[in-house]
From TrEMBL:
SUPFAM superfamilies linked to this entry: Periplasmic binding protein-like I (SSF53822)
Source organism: bioreactor metagenome
InterPro entries reported for this sequence: Peripla_BP_I
Name of the featured protein: Periplasmic binding protein domain-containing protein
Length: 110
């Protein structure tokens, strides 16, 4: 697995060396990676919901400071990671950003 700028580089190296046996799993939903997924050059990427990740961190810090009980926090906090492949490369944004929920209130508020 690679960081966001590595995937396009691996695609280029595979093309230049004639390699077709490399399965590429990238990270982050950058335009070049999504284009390469649609073209069949990258198998998939994992996209993270950075906004939710930041929001949840601040929310937990605030709750700890105001309520003082970290024991109520979940041991695992999912920031909304989505696997993007050819089946959802055109529609992943709704999966990634449409699922942001703050204490039961969907965001953006409709």
């Amino acid at each position: 697995m690679l960081e966001s700028t590595g995937g396009p580089g691996v695609v280029q190296v595979c093309q230049e060396t004639g390699r077709t046996d490399v399965l590429i799993l990238d990270i982050d939903a950058v335009d070049a990676t999504i284009d390469n997924i649609k073209a069949g050059k990258v198998w998939a990427t994992l996209a993270q919901n950075f906004y939710k990740r930041g929001y949840e961190s601040v929310r937990m810090a605030y709750e700890y400071l105001t309520e003082g009980d970290a024991a109520t926090f979940a041991k695992l906090n999912d920031s909304g990671t989505v696997l993007i492949d050819q089946t959802n490369a055109a529609t992943y944004a709704e999966d990634l950003w449409g699922a942001i929920v703050y204490k039961g209130t969907p965001w953006p508020a409709k």
